[in-house]
Design a protein that fits this description.
12 strands; about 15% strand; alpha/beta; 3-stranded antiparallel sheet; binds pyridoxal-5'-phosphate
């Protein structure tokens, strides 16, 4: 039985074509900088994102952290959304490992941090009053955020404002390719307002692991050193690099299918009595499901679906994510199973 796993787009497996690319990769020792596949990957992503240089890291978490540590000195602070991944979902790494103070700020429903809030969070620095504070050096945004594409006009305004105050601007672009595809923009357009961008290769792009950090040559040189300190210096990482190159060439345009399938999923689920869709954007659907019908007894929807080879995260309020291992037919089967659960019939 094929498992339909909508917990995340991280569950994607390498395709046959990707495996073949990995098997035939030319490799070297990337800590020495001589893995030809990783070097080609970095050159290609730097060119496509319109940045000077790139660095290949094992995870998006490490990529964001190396970026923050490359931008900030010990005792600096970075301004970030209260629900942003770098702040909330990465174990507090910037503070724990980087000695960088996070200044989280409440976001709007669309993932933006109001510019007035950013303005009032930036601390004075220097002698006198400024001696009291951590130095504000970086603003970090996230795109997509909960699947939503951050408005381009907001990004332009926020990044220009941050820069006018002497802050650098980082993008957690774990799903920046989804933003590009959904808004008919190039990845270079999405990355342009930022000094650095972290891109995940192991989400919808389907590589087994890997993230890419892009930015100026000087920034990437600093991040290269932090990557080693953080334990992310890999040796023959060209085997994974080959999967990422394959993903960049074959799995970007097809993200549109994931977005179509997420729309289909939302449209079909909402037809089930009592189901609420709180948001649907790019490849994510946020859904609130009603409580189980009395006839189901103690059985939860999660357990019911699991017994049918379908996985979701959480129980009644959850996020469903589409990807290349859950295509149209799988989505329709998933919706049929949810519908069956609520029909109350014993199976
Ligand atoms: C997945 C993700 C990351 C990085 O996570 P890893 O699992 O470490 O690769 C960073 N930001 C966002 C928004 C993500 O979804």
């Amino acid at each position: 039985m094929k498992v339909i796993d909508l917990r995340s787009d991280t569950v994607t497996r390498p395709t046959a074509g990707m495996m073949a690319a990995m098997m035939s990769a030319e490799v070297g020792d990337d800590v020495w900088g001589d893995d030809p596949t990783v070097n080609r990957l970095c050159a290609i992503i730097a060119e496509r994102t319109g940045k000077e240089a790139a660095l290949f890291l094992p995870t998006g978490t490490q990529s964001n952290l190396a970026a923050i540590m490359a931008h900030c000195e010990r005792g600096d602070e970075y301004i970030v959304g209260q629900m942003a991944h770098t702040y909330r979902w990465e174990g507090g790494g910037a503070a724990v490992l980087g000695s960088v103070v996070p200044q989280p700020l409440e976001q709007e429903a669309d993932g933006t941090i109001p510019i007035a809030k950013i303005a009032s969070a930036i601390k004075p620095y220097g002698p006198g009053l400024g001696a009291h504070f951590a130095r504000s050096t970086l603003l970090a945004l996230e795109n997509t955020w909960s699947g939503k594409v951050l408005p381009a006009a907001y990004i332009a305004e926020a990044s220009a404002f941050a820069r006018s105050k002497g802050l650098a601007v980082h993008l957690d672009g774990a799903r920046a390719f989804n933003a590009a595809v959904a808004s008919n923009a190039s990845i270079a357009d999405i990355c342009k307002p930022f000094d650095s961008v972290s891109l995940c290769m192991s989400k919808g792009l389907g590589a087994p692991a890997g993230a890419l950090l892009v930015g100026s040559k000087a920034l990437i040189e600093r991040a290269f050193r932090w990557r080693k300190v953080l334990g992310g210096g890999m040796r023959q990482s060209g085997f994974i690099g080959a999967a990422c190159l394959y993903a960049l060439d074959h799995h970007v345009a097809r993200l549109a299918d994931d977005h179509d399938n997420a729309r289909l999923l939302a449209e079909a689920l909402v037809k089930i009595d009592g189901v609420k869709i709180t948001s649907q954007a790019t490849n994510m659907v946020f859904v609130e499901l009603p409580k189980a019908p009395v006839a189901r007894g103690e059985e939860t929807i999660e357990a019911f679906l699991k017994s049918r080879g379908m996985l979701m995260q959480g129980v009644y309020s959850t996020r469903l994510v589409t990807h290349h291992d859950a295509m149209r037919d799988d989505i329709l089967r998933f919706v049929a199973a949810v519908s069956e659960f609520y029909s109350g019939a014993r199976s």
